[in-house]
Amino acid sequence: MSSITAVVLAAFVGYGAAWYFGALEGNFSLLLFLATVVTGLYWLAERFYFLPQRHQAVATLEASAAKRQAELAKMGISQVDDNTSEAKTRLIMQPWWLDWTAGLFPVIVVVFLLRSFLFEPFKIPSGSMIPTLLINDLILVNKFHYGIRLPVLNTKVLDNHSPQRGDVMVFRYPPKPSLDYIKRVVGVPGDEVAYLNKKLTINGKPLAKTPLPDFFDEDALRYAKQFQETNGDRTYRLLNDDDRPAFIPGADDFPFKENCRYSSEGVVCKVPEGHYFMMGDNRDNSLDSRYWGFVPEKNIVGKAFFVWMNFGNLKRIGSFQ
Question: Transmembrane segments in this chain: where (predicted)?
Fold first, then answer.
């Protein structure tokens, strides 16, 4: 078993290394699921086979020692050194290959369940959600808010809340579902979303957009115009860049693109059933539904709600709208 276990562990390490160095596209959910299954099988084998075998070996040793002491006692020898303690310790001890499999199962299964059904951590890699979320913010995503989904498959098995306008949502990027994206829900199924001349209108109703003091982007070392916008029951901040044009350059072909009309002023889209229109708060620096289309319900991962750490700025810790 030690040789088989070494091969299994080497496979996990090799997969992780290849993912880290970009030799293949990794899937952490799948990796964690496989680790849970493998360590779970080892845990069951340890619990019902290997551990009873070791206990039996200890019992056999104790019986042999007792028999020897009884024989010596018949010969009048009553003072006998008990030198079986170290042997019993060695017999009952888990071998290394069980330490690294069955021994890790309780931790791995807890992480798997928490990450799959309750909360999952993410790191913000880009500035598309500035000023709400900054680069390197470490956030928590509520995995059950929009319903319970099977891990890896992401198939919904239990309904909960539906995404609402203004929610910050993590989802699988429609052109490449292996990637996770984060944007704000702007339009829900049936909405007509218009973003013309950098003004957002939902079903013919312009959203209130109140000017705020300019925002200083410490990474780009420049100021951007900042506004406050309300969509549904969410009020949040957004940025506009006067140097960027209003039209949408280079929009991809995507499902239901016929629902959208592009012009020099921007875009107008009718959101199809079972889909959502997403935009970044950094409006002129965000590749979102204006470029790659609608997010299908099956791609939803969860609702982002809390910054739990930013090692460069501890003041970032807290909830956000």
Answer: 28-45, 97-118
